[in-house]
Amino acid sequence: MTARTTRRTTAKSRIAAVGAIAVAGTMLLTACGDQTKGGSTTADSTKSATGASSAADLLPPDIKAKGVIKVGSDIAYPPVEFKDGSGKVVGIDPDLGAALGKELGVKFEFENGTFDTLISGLRAKRYQLAMSAITDTKDRQEGIDSETKKKVGEGVDFVDYFTAGVSIYTKKGDDQGIKTWSDLCGKKIAVQRGTVSHDLAKAESKKCTGGKKIAIESYDTDLEAQTRLRSGGADAGSSDFPVAAYAVKTSGGGKDFQLVGEQVEAAPYGIAIAKGNDQLTKAVEAALNAIIKSGEYDKIIAKWGVEAGAVTEAKINGGS
Fold it and tell me: How much is the pTM?
């Protein structure tokens, strides 16, 4: 789940205006963006749904022969990816992965890893893809550390498949006057390490005056950050909007948390692929366009109540 990161113009986020899962019982999403600008698309890639130009034909021969694509993922980020009561990996990304795998004629195998190691896992060839609510940003594309702005790697390519923003949440009935990121000065926030929320907190803390910096506690998983807030060890938490809204709706039967303020930093989620794997990137793009055209994509997005974050076409490196 890499949003899960990178600073933008106003605050930050794991998308381009995503919808809102309502906390008053149902899921309500309000969208504020699409993916019609930037990036590149392959107009003919959707033909794979009709069999005229199969996305599977674009797969590298070695992957096609193995019949498996290994996918790095931080499987503790509901509803994007998580384990259900039986231990089965479920969520938006696993469902989309299954549909993409069917289109490509291979199986997507999700392998658990901490969010901040997924991209390095691609470089080490532990996975062919990383799919974990990873925000597509220019820094990630170019291998730039978002905080130091130094080159730290070759970067990755993204096939963008969804959009979302970042939200703040607090204990229910105890928002402590927190409505915006600037209200966090002098307070403590719990976040997942390496995410957009983490970047936002660090960037906002630098703006605080009067010695009232933001105390930031970062954790390997978002669920650990939620536990810290639930126990009273922090004043607020922050996650990508769909994740924060899901936590608010489900944790403690909806009695633990509440969303505060508006989501910020809308940006695309991307399936990450190591640089130099253009054939695989095009195959994934073609498969995504195929399931969008067939309607399977919309069915999956609707299943999880996040229609406002849906895209109408695949896009390569559409993040900014």
Answer: 0.75
